[in-house]
Amino acid sequence: MPETRVVRRPSGIRQAAARIDAATPPQRDRAVDALRALAILGVVLGHWLVTALVADGDTLRAASPLGPMPWLAPVSWVFQTLAVFFMVGGHVATRGLASARARGGTQGTYAGWLRSRLARLFRPVLAVLAVWTVAAVGLLLGGASFVTVHTVVKLALSPLWFLLVFAALSAATPLLARLNPLWPLAVVLHVDLVRFGLGGPSWLGWVNLAAGWLVPYTLGAAWARGELERPRAGWTLLVGGAAATALLVGLAGYPASMVGVPGAAVSNLNPPTLAAVTFGLAQCGLALLLRDRLRRAMTRPSAWAAVALVNLSAMTVFLWHQTAMMATTATGLLAGRLPGLHTVPAGPDWVAARLLWLPVFGLVLGVCWAAFHGFESGAGRRVRSREDRSRLVRLATRPGPSRLPEARRV
After folding, report:
1. Hey, which of 32, 276, 285, 375 would disulfide with 268, CB 3.0 to 4.6 Å?
2. pLDDT at 410 over 80
3. Structure pTM?
């Protein structure tokens, strides 16, 4: 009796991944997209791990496990990935502006390029502002305390600071495309020297809000110019940045946490300090060294499809991840004070419980994505036909600058 062979057809997910892989132009540098996806996922997971909403009677207040548990500081080293985000943003913006000028036409002008870029950046913000305006009014009318409303609105809208900084750097791309990163690094150094060493005013630190993120942004521009292709550049940034950060934390008294800790005298992130910038240099160096490995990893259709999906949804994920956490927290209050969700983050038991909540946050974020991703795509409608789905795939994999904000895309 002849042997019967069972032919297994590839699943729908594998077929979709294969189509996305086949539709991607061979000249696209998939490592750029992979770094962007890793950066935004780092920001999301970092916020979910180090941000807590503690139920104190009828009031919710923000807290962080990094205060009572300083040994968790390495968590911020892993998930504070904004420097990589800005480096990728500077790289893509520099290349995108050059490509637009080469194409010519209306979109080839600086004004046309910037208008298109800012529209992609800020269109999804309108939905966030509208939802949280209604939510804040509803909470106040429903009897919620002002402290609670202020806490949740501040957390929900806190990602917007990044968009303003990134928009300003994007607008200045023609001026920044050839700026040496050492210049903004020198500004950060002198600001901190005056602020901390000479007793200068604390407001001076806000100069670093621009100068600090200029460093990785201009590194991205240097990458676009081909100046960071050799491994030596990555190793220099990694070793030099790590050594400088260790000295600043160990000898100069900078905080070990690379994110802000409520109640701490100094925050490394708000505004950026020299330690945050040197740490970012180390991160950027590591990212540059990982490019070849990421390119090889992205040859797998399933891995590339996942990265393409994150990039296509980057603004939605970035803008709504805090809302997903707070929606879960508010809903959970119906069942009482739940460990890792409403309790004080003061011990390892809270950390263990919070890890169990991460998949729930992810599911709620998926609901937010389904509801609001249309604002990011600009379609504002459901994709109803095969032609629409094909167009969506082409948008997700088209060459040149992604249709998502490049920094982040925090």
Report:
1. 276
2. no
3. 0.87
